[in-house]
Amino acid sequence: MEAPGGGAGPMPTTPSHASIADSDDFDLSRLLNHRPRINVERQRSFDDRSLGDLYLSAMDSRGGYMDSYESMYSPGGGLRSLTGTPASSTRLSFEPQLLVAEAWEALRRSLVCFRGEPLGTIAAVDSSSDEVLNYDQVFVRDFVPSALAFLMNGEPDIVKNFLLKTLLLQGWEKRIDRFKLGEGAMPASFKVLKDPKRGVDTLAADFGESAIGRVAPADSGFWWIILLRAYTKSTGDLTLAETPECQKGIRLIMNQCLAEGFDTFPTLLCADGCCMIDRRMGVYGYPIEIQALFFMSLRCALLLLKPAAEGNSKDDDIMERIVTRLHALSYHMRSYFWLDFQQLNVIYRFKTEEYSHTAVNKFNVIPESIPDWLFDFMPSRGGYFVGNVSPARMDFRWFALGNCVAILASLATPEQAGAIMDLIEERWEDLIGEMPLKICYPAIESHEWQTVTGCDPKNTRWSYHNGGSWPVLIWLLTAACIKTGRLKIARRAIDLAEARLGKDGWPEYYDGKLGRYVGKQARKHQTWSIAGYLVAKMMLEDPSHLGMISLEEDKAMNPVLKRSASWTV
Hints:
By secondary structure, the protein is mostly helical.
């Protein structure tokens, strides 16, 4: 990535409209000094309840919603995970290894401080490269694995600082040229600017105005909500999420995503380059990565939002809108994005130009658009969520992040989650190769590469976003493996990574069909490659950590179909 969030070139030295150094209307010190409010009496896990139950109890004036919310911290055993085992009470309980120690040392070198307090980790600490570009910035999506590593190691203050500072940045007025971005938009990244003469630290944020193509990050707000829930789950600190500032931040993100428009689908319409794949790669439309993160953030927001004050109909409305959207989104994704051998055969036999509500081929997908590689790639046992579905278009590529998040968020049913893992096992050489994990499969090349990427020299076949192998994804793979009970896959993948990562200098990505070669433009000492490895190791050693970033299946997502009163033979 020219940067994990997108743009090449230096950041502006100051933001367009504000400086955090001059902003006194948001008292961060007050929030940072709050002592966590931890409830250790409740027994029932909030995540075990259905969305319908959550909404009804949120509306209950007796406070049942908050009772369940507080139950995330269990008595005696520390934090309760979704696997039912208590979280480890010791830091790094697994046996220290040389590579792990090296990784922690490298991760701490990437820490950046703001006014003496650690605030986040920069994208890379690569002394071998003269071009800094924006790798010296803190990216929201990149910091997530670093944050999880610190949480698992009992160091939550760094994460809390990050959550609060990015929340403050959300409140800035955001403009690109003469257009004003929505209030809920979170930055792609920010940079700490130090003035040694004045002794003052300031922040400069990038909301997309410096990115390649000037695309705002659609995923930053989702990752922020997911990380806030992970912090709350890990520490039992309910105070942070319950502050008016955090509550407002969540609602702003939700309002921006749930705004009514011309959409006929519950999925989010996005521009190319709005997520981890931050360059033109044909993911415009309804990419699986954004839909899975959207679904997970909706569920996390429902867990974190406080019940509305009496008489506040606007707050009641957003909870109801979240529940409604979740049900519609889960149905849409499971019905139209899911592909396995049987569904492929159905699409292969589709009729086209169907009209009316009785149409089977609802998106008018042309069977001749099915790529040849898919017929050999699709095993009889296994399946996955395709990359994109929109009118007359289905992107059949496999995307790792979207499918792994779908498992963690329980967007995938248990059967679908198992099928995704089956596919990874059946197509190990294609999706894992010699370095986990392919960001997407297969690579596009020749004329298709020219038209889809615009002849992008960085996204040539089997490189970077175009079929490159990204070590950071190993933490998501490991989490998905733990949730589905496929630990052998995780161990095998981690073994592959350990054989190369340290010796190769923790590269950003690998090239080649098997991921054999260090990426041609890959930065060394890439922070999220380091953090992703550490998180994978810690989760495998103590699977209870999974509870931070996994949600149980909501039974209400699978309603039993009943005959209506008007049904007749």
